[in-house]
Design a protein that fits this description.
single chain; mainly alpha; 5 helices; about 0% strand
Length: about 140
């Protein structure tokens, strides 16, 4: 039960600025167009979203070291806090700092969560999502 609450809270923290941005700016259209990379990114994104909240039986090994919950909450809390700070700092910019910070930080949250939880599918989806999301974000600043 706690996994659902923590995962949902982390996802809300990451998604709220994105939703506000989408409402104010009118959607999430990207200037860079590469169907393959976009599809892979979306598969990774929605896989991470789902797996951060729901645990698939027999693929989830839970925390695998003592005090892992404290480490999980501390590191993810710190990453989410830094993510929100970068949203505020970069809200009206379209530069490399924004592209990298707002793509690397959520990628780290997903990958770190998968590793600490011993959640192999989350690690796989995060490994798919991260390079595609970072690549698309960086390409969008040059378009």
């Amino acid at each position: 039960m706690y996994g659902i609450i923590y995962g949902l809270a982390i996802m809300a923290i990451i998604m709220i600025p994105n939703i506000i941005f989408a409402i104010k700016k009118g959607g999430g259209q990207t200037a860079y167009r590469n169907k393959t990379v976009e599809i892979l990114e979306q598969i990774g994104r929605y896989g991470c979203f789902f797996l951060m909240i729901f645990n698939l039986p027999y693929t989830y090994f839970n925390f695998w070291f003592e005090s892992a919950l404290i480490v999980y909450l501390t590191i993810n809390g710190g990453l989410c806090f830094i993510y929100l700070i970068f949203w505020v700092i970069c809200r009206n910019k379209n530069n490399l700092l924004r592209a990298l910070s707002l793509s690397i930080l959520p990628s780290c949250v997903f990958l770190f969560s998968g590793i600490v939880l011993g959640y192999i599918p989350l690690v796989c989806f995060a490994t798919l999502f991260a390079p595609c999301h970072i690549f698309i974000s960086c390409k969008n600043i040059s378009e």
